[in-house]
Prior knowledge:
By secondary structure, the protein is mainly α.
Amino acid sequence: MRPTRQEILDYLLHTMQDLTQDWDYAEPVSAESLLFTEVGLESLDAVILGTAIQEHYQTPMPFAELLAEIGEQQRDLTINELVDFVDTHLGSQMGAQVPEAVSLRRPQ
């Protein structure tokens, strides 16, 4: 079953709070927190976070493309934007699975 956007947000906020416990970031992490300039995420942290998200949802997602895009645009990424990214790619994966399920039917 596909998680709701709120469930994705809750998971990401919890994951980010776990990550930031080891850092000097004392502020609470929110949906509007900027991952790089505010929270202090570095490129390796972003790769680890992307891997954790893909493992949690058991779905491959194009995190390398997302990171390249924000790098090219020289901008930051909010947790809300990351939620949108995950939600979009979980939705496209769920849609991609529908034909497989249909193809398992016996011909009549």
